[in-house]
Amino acid sequence: MEIERKFLISELPENLEQYPCRLIEQGYLNTDPVVRVRRDDSACYLTYKGKGLLAREEYNLPLTEEAYRHLIRKADGRIITKRRYMLPCGPYTIELDVFLGELAPLVIAEVEFPDLKAAEDFIPPDWFGQDVTMDPAYHNSVLSRA
């Protein structure tokens, strides 16, 4: 089960380059239900995501590079590329996605939680913008078609 909140970011935090960063490329084979292929630096995955906004099922299966290259060509919609920065935030980690290509200059912060109470109690840092957790328009599967 994935439990996460999403926030729009209008201004990047200072010293972003000091945090770990990965390059992510992903495409969607299906959006209802969500079936995604992703290359995260050199690791490749096929992911199934269930319905939901704040909480939903998620299953990841490893892929070979060859299988990833084969499946990404079958993606429906745009291929999403983004840089993901990992920033500490108390007991949590902020996954700061800086979108590249057609979706630039979109920046979204995601924070995953161990349970619903932790997600509801979370107080975002001052530099976070609008909470878009309950807005499906900010799911990557929707962004791939927008």
UniProtKB/TrEMBL annotation:
Source organism, top-level taxon: Bacteria
InterPro entries registered for this protein in UniProt: CYTH-like_dom_sf, CYTH_domain, NeuTTM/CthTTM-like
TM region(s), chain numbering: none
Domain CYTH: 1-146
Active site: Y28 (proton acceptor)
One family name in Pfam for this protein: CYTH
Protein name according to UniProt: CYTH domain-containing protein
Protein species of origin: Candidatus Eisenbergiella pullistercoris
